[in-house]
User: Which sequence fits this backbone?
């Protein structure tokens, strides 16, 4: 459960002073905190762990890592529903 | 979609295997300390591809597995209260405490919810002002910033009915404890890639120097693992003991410093009991005093609960790399992922669960029958 999952930043926004974003993982979109990866922009790929972006990575690395996580059955957390805040 | 690039190309793997064979002149024991690496090694049979001289043992790389029975029982006691909404990562739901697991509690009417992100609990807390929302904050360093952020925001935004039961564990003190053990066999480590994405690897440098062990921070693709093994074996054969970074395409020596600052604003280092291993000094995080109003251990007075572990289970020795899952008389017999007896079987990322889910026990039984 300590593995981070790569996703693509779709949009960024501010919520109560925190830099948040919508990040796409395969067919799923999750709200992700981007505050600690200030360099990440829309279209970039980020490594995300439980809603928190740890770092940016390149697109090729992201695709490869995502495919591997899928193969070793480590994407289950993306199935957990998340209700959007107001 | 299958990727066939340099990291999946069999030729690269074959080339690395050839280099490992060329480098090895005598037996070595290497330990990985990341549940994802353990999974990948067993799934792709990396431990069987490499020369027999190089033995891979599987360290305490799964935070779910090493969460102490006392802490799980504490979680269950809190979750059982009618005024509590207990939130957790999904991995913790099936981990048995002394009296069943969280799923069982839920079937008895407790409000237990699986959340994707710790920050989602703040929303649940705001939506349920009459309830106390408690999050089970477990994990290694990778999870610490997300957990710290939830507590920091709760204080900042005045979400008074949110608290966290913190049971964080840290990699460097655990690998040090293994090296200090008189029965230690580990001669080199493959370090955890995603933990170091946050923390960097400067903490590992004094360990490598003091215990004269190579530590190679490694990713978890099969090719990453082979390359990490090669780098570690080359160091061992040359008598070197340095920290090297195989995973440099993802992480740097200093990690994410802003995220580290967030962790240490909210948490401080504390002793922590590890399931199967015992208490390791300074091996975990707890909430700082400034965040005491969000500390579930302070808010809910839970008595110390008497716990008892299985007498046959050897998970403690497996976590230290002294023995392997098939060495246990209970493995795949009394002890299965459905009815786990100890730490290394309780979560999918534990070494015993990985061996079980990839059918290693069936092969071993076949081999024994052919004997």
Assistant:
């Amino acid at each position: 459960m300590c593995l981070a999952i790569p996703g693509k930043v779709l949009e960024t926004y501010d919520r109560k002073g925190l830099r948040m974003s919508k990040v796409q993982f395969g067919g799923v979109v999750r709200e992700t905190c981007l505050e600690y990866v200030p360099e990440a922009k829309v279209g970039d790929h980020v490594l995300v762990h439980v809603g928190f972006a740890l770092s940016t990575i390149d697109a090729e690395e992201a695709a490869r890592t995502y495919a591997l996580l899928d193969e070793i059955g480590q994407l289950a957390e993306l199935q957990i529903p998340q209700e959007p805040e107001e | 979609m299958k990727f066939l690039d340099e990291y999946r190309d069999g030729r690269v793997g074959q080339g690395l295997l050839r280099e490992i064979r060329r480098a090895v002149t005598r037996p070595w024991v290497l330990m990985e300390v990341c549940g994802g690496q353990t999974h990948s090694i067993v799934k792709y049979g990396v431990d069987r591809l490499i020369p027999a001289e190089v033995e891979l043992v599987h360290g305490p790389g799964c935070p779910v597995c090493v969460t102490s029975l006392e802490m799980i029982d504490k979680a269950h006691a809190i979750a059982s209260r009618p005024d509590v909404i207990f939130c957790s990562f999904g991995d913790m739901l099936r981990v048995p405490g002394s009296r069943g697991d969280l799923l069982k509690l839920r079937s008895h009417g407790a409000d237990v919810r699986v959340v994707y992100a710790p920050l989602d609990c703040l929303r649940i807390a705001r939506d349920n002002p009459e309830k106390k929302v408690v999050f089970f904050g477990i994990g290694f360093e990778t999870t610490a910033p997300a957990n710290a952020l939830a507590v920091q925001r709760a204080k900042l935004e005045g979400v008074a009915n949110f608290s966290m039961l913190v049971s964080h564990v840290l990699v460097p003190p655990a690998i040090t404890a293994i090296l200090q053990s008189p029965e230690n066999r580990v001669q080199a480590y493959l370090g955890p890639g995603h933990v170091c994405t946050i923390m960097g690897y400067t903490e590992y440098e004094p360990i490598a120097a003091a215990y004269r062990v190579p530590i190679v921070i490694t990713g978890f693709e099969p090719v990453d693992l082979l390359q990490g093994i090669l780098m570690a074996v080359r160091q061992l054969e040359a008598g070197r003991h340095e920290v090297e970074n195989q995973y440099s395409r993802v992480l740097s020596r200093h990690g994410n410093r802003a995220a580290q600052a967030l962790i240490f604003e909210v948490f401080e280092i504390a002793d922590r009991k590890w399931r199967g291993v015992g208490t390791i000094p300074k091996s975990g995080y707890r909430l700082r005093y400034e965040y005491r109003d969000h500390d579930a251990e302070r808010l809910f007075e839970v008595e110390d609960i008497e716990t008892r572990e299985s007498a046959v289970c050897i998970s403690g020795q497996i976590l230290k790399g002294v023995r392997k899952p098939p060495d246990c008389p209970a493995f795949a017999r009394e002890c299965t992922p459905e009815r786990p007896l100890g730490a290394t079987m309780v979560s999918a990322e534990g070494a015993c669960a990985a061996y079980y889910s990839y059918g290693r026990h069936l092969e071993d039984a076949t081999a024994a029958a052919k004997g």
Summary: Helices of chain A lie at 59-71. Chain A has one helix and five strands. The domain at 5-77 of chain A is CATH 2.30.30.140 (SH3 type barrels.).
